[in-house]
Amino acid sequence: MPRIVVDVMPKPEILDPQGKAIVGALPRLGFTSFSSVRQGKRFELTVDGEVTEEILAQARDAAETLLSNPVIEDVINVEVVEA
Amino acid sequence: MPRIVVDVMPKPEILDPQGKAIVGALPRLGFTSFSSVRQGKRFELTVDGEVTEEILAQARDAAETLLSNPVIEDVINVEVVEA
What we know:
Two copies of one chain form a homodimer.
Chain A: E1 3-10, H1 17-28, E2 34-47, H2 53-67, E3 73-81
């Protein structure tokens, strides 16, 4: 069944404490090549049947209203993935 | 600067309470086209300079050891994105 993938990331100007914690932990584990880390969310919405333009528009709308907080987060990607 | 994107999702057999909460909330907001939702994580690791094979291998290793919990999560994607 097709899925719609929605990617949400904290806005660049917003502090991301989880990302900061990870970037602090990486060198302690021997991973020294990364200068910054941001943590966001990935949602997979399963659709019964075909993904129409209307369903994709619903997914974009849901991404902006339910899956992300537009004050602190950006929806950076909404795309269809065939299972 | 290039970034490495790491996508982590709960394993299919693992209960995902956040996804369940979202799939329950969607119809109340008028979004009726989605039969299930899974919520995972997306990480963006910024690399200073070029992404070599060695740095990509470090990212894959970090994804399995620090960015995901292999008991309940799968690393489903590690890819380079040019900024």
